[in-house]
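Run log // design_07
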């Protein structure tokens, strides 16, 4: 006869679920409002989404206060894990989302923003990413990953262009493959250890002194390939330029930031303990992938004729650069990962937003894509403010001093030197120099070429919300270097107290 088990509400620590629950409730609220009264203006849904994002941010900050006072929190049958990594990642996710969602007010040309479903899917996606980063349970990570992915696929397709449908199908296909690899790798580790919790897996493997190294190799290879797809590491990056090109430029910029920080956090939890345990082959493979991703993506970016595809390959290179932090595996490197990605988020979202506002309904004669370099020729003469802002974002992404991202690069390269990866630090520095070429190439077109269309001035017709978001991104790119030291101290405290 089975005995009844009493589970107290306090032992569940339901507070660990509050941020994700807020996002889910917001998505359901939008769906219910649309069912009751359809055809409402999209500005209402933007305001509702922003309201729930603000509540979500407040809940995350509350979790940060609890963590600072009491340390790591477990909840809901110990599948939820609220530590410094979870809090930092959720801050990046929610703040980037709050910068993205007002862009729906900027133009009537993009009809996907007229659908309430877009905003509901957006909030479901945020909840999925938050579940990913706030757990070390492989099952919950998988559920969060699929929740976010299944919401993101239709968001891409809602752009309603032939390339958008192609992009959504490609992303779905690659996502399904990555999900299968993740499930198979998790199954192997569970068969070896009897647990799906990463810290328990690490303890069991260490206690057995990695006796079943062959099986560990198989499980790790599948999991590594899965996250390489999600993080668009070479050679698993092939979907990235096509998917970014088919998406709206603003959504492409968002995709280059938020899904990847979730992937980085899970990869940090999963692979760093294997690297630190002396699994040499994983370190070698990760070292090779980091170097190849940085270098090959830069080379491909140089030969692109379309600015959006160039930025897509650029984001691949940045992902490789940041992945080096997981290879190095020190507290300084992990702090550098969050510092770099926070600084990168502003500049990259700003650059993609500038592309988004300059999109044309009708391509010019001889124009094969929305954003060829030639379209930006002489932009400084026709739209000096837009050209100056775009140049600012390009210089920031290139890591030019004194712009904000330079200090993120410098800190991460310093972490490589401190961790004994001197050759890797040199390769990172050389790749940063190479990347400067294709960023400056766009600046040359804007400032040193004759204009193709003398009437081209997009930013003048932009809405207040777009100008506000672009202004915030530009201000952060230009002046956030003044706050680098407090940011390092803030991030470092959370990382160190989480044991990373």
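design_07 sequence
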């Amino acid at each position: 006869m089975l005995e009844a088990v009493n589970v107290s509400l306090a032992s569940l620590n339901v507070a660990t679920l509050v941020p994700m629950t807020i996002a889910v409730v917001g998505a359901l609220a939008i769906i219910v409002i649309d069912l009751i009264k359809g055809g409402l203006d999209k500005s209402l849904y933007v305001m509702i989404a922003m309201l729930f994002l603000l509540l979500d941010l407040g809940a995350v900050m509350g979790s940060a206060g609890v963590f600072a006072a009491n340390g790591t929190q477990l909840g809901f049958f110990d599948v939820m894990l609220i530590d410094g990594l979870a809090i930092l990642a959720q801050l990046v996710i929610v703040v980037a989302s709050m910068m993205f969602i007002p862009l729906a007010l900027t133009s009537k040309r993009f009809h996907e923003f007229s659908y309430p479903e877009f905003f509901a899917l957006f909030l479901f996606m945020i909840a999925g990413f938050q579940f990913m980063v706030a757990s070390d349970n492989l099952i919950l990570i998988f559920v969060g990953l699929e929740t976010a992915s299944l919401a993101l696929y239709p968001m891409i397709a809602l752009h309603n262009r032939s390339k958008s449908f192609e992009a959504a199908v490609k992303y779905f296909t690659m996502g399904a493959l990555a999900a299968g690899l993740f499930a198979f790798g998790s199954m192997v580790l569970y068969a070896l250890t009897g647990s799906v919790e990463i810290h328990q897996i690490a303890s069991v493997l260490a206690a057995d002194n990695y006796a079943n190294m062959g099986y560990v190799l198989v499980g790790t290879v599948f999991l590594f390939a899965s996250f390489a797809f999600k993080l668009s590491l070479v050679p698993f990056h092939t979907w990235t330029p096509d998917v970014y090109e088919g998406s709206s430029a603003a959504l492409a910029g968002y995709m280059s930031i938020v899904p990847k920080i979730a992937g980085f956090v899970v990869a940090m939890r999963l692979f760093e303990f294997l690297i630190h345990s002396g699994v040499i082959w994983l370190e070698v493979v990760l070292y090779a992938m980091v170097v190849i991703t940085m270098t090959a993506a830069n080379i491909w970016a140089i030969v692109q004729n379309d600015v959006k595809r160039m930025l897509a390959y650029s984001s691949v290179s940045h992902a490789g650069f940041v992945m080096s932090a997981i290879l190095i595996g020190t507290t300084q490197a992990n702090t550098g990962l969050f510092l770099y990605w926070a600084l990168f988020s502003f500049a990259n979202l700003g650059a993609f937003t500038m592309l988004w506002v300059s999109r044309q309904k009708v391509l010019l004669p001889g124009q094969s894509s929305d954003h060829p370099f030639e379209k930006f020729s002489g932009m400084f003469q026709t739209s000096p403010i837009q050209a100056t802002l775009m140049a600012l974002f390009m210089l920031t992404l290139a890591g030019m001093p004194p712009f904000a991202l330079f200090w993120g690069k410098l800190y991460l390269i310093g972490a490589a030197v401190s961790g004994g990866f001197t050759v890797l630090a040199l390769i990172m520095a050389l790749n940063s120099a190479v990347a400067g070429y294709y960023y400056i190439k766009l600046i040359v077109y804007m400032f040193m070429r004759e204009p193709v269309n003398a009437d081209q001035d997009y930013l003048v017709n932009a809405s207040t919300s777009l100008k506000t978001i672009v202004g915030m991104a530009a201000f952060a790119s230009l002046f956030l270097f003044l706050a680098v030291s407090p940011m390092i101290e803030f991030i470092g405290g959370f990382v160190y107290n989480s044991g990373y």
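The beta strands are 73-75, 80-82.
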